[in-house]
Structure formats: structure tokens, C-alpha cells
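Suppose a colleague, Dr. K., hands you the sequence of a protein chain of 230 amino acids and asks what its three-dimensional shape might be. Before reaching for any lab equipment, you can write down a predicted structure in C-alpha cell form. Begin with the sequence itself:
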Amino acid sequence: MNRPRVLDLFSCAGGAAMGYHLAGFEVDGCDIDDRPRYPFPYHRGDALEYLAHLILTGDIGRYTLVHVSPPCQAGCALTVGTNASQGWGGTHTDLVAPTRTLLDRTGLPYVMEQPNGKAKIRKDLSLCGEMFGLGVLRHRNFELGRWSTPKPVHPKHRGYVRGHRHGVKREGPYVAAYGKGGGKATVPEMQAAMGITWTDVHEELTEAIPPAFTRWIGRAFLTCRQEVFA
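The predicted structure, expressed as C-alpha cells, is then:
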């Protein structure tokens, strides 16, 4: 049987892609940077230009679902919170709106992922590492286009994220998979906490979402699809 195929745009090193693979999808990725560790077929280039090309040529018809993780620095919690209050950082590109415009043109179901913050997406799903017994919290929000699924219950966290914050050192069952210093996770700790073994690049790990998130989403999508066609 042919497996459904998902187009993974702004793919980074493939955290989302691996989850869809585990859920039963074939995956094709696209990212503007060279990602030699991406574990599936991959196109290097501008994600929106590539999506527009697929729409124009009709090749978008190969796909059952589109997953997008557009740059999120403009709306993430760190940018609009700590960095803004301290006057750190600069301007950031927000590609959510132009990405959604092209997604609407595809006519396909889609998943748009963003971190907690002020990104202008619907929060149709909010997932957390504690839902899957992971060693990171990694809260992420997902807008679902042309399909829906019930929201899972967000369980109570078991404790703190390990590290220094605002002058206070805390221990806890979760590691901070971003930045360096201050008790942040090492590369091996991030790999173990998120279930990502195919890359050991610090920047790729700090940007990745755990495959468990998209494995859950992929299975929910396939269940929804089966119910529609039943």
C-alpha cells in the first residue's frame, strides 16, 4: 500500500518529519539551509518559493498533508518577553501570514507549528513534552487547516526545568533545550530528552520539536481521514 505523503516546510533537521514517518507517512523536506542530517528526501531552497512552485506545476497533488514551521522569532515568548524588556535582539521576519496564504491555495489539510508567544495562529492544539513522558516541556501550538481533532488534556508538570533563571538555580525532571550555560542541556541530554538521535548539531536540536508531537498529530490526522471516508 502507498503511504500518505507529507510535505515538511521549514524543516530544519527533521524533528517533525521523523514523527510523521513514525505515524505512517512518507516525508519530503525543504529548508533554506543545508541540512545533511535530514533523514528523508530533501530540497534545499526557500520554502515559500518551493511551495509556490509545487502549486504552479501541480506537483503539490502528490501530498496528503502539509506541515509548516515558519520562522517564529518575531512572536516567540523569549523575543516578546525577556529580550524585549531588556532591549536585546533586533527585528525578525514573520512569515506566518504569507505561509497561510499559500497553504490556502494548495487546498490541502495542513499543520502550522509555532512556539508559545504571540504568533498569530489559531491554537487548535497545544502539545507539551509531559504528555509523552519526555525530558523536555517544549510547549508548541498548532493551527490545523481543513481538519480537526480533539485537544488532549495537558497534564500537570512534575517539577521545574533544570537551570538558572532570574538568579535562582533549580533542579527538575526537565532540561532546557535552548541556549548555552546556566544549566542548559548538553547535546547528549537534548538528544535523549527529545528522542532525536540523527543529529548532534546544537543549533538543530535547539530548534527541533520532539518527534512524539508529530507522531501524535499524524496518527490523529489519519484517524480523522478514515472517519471522513468511512
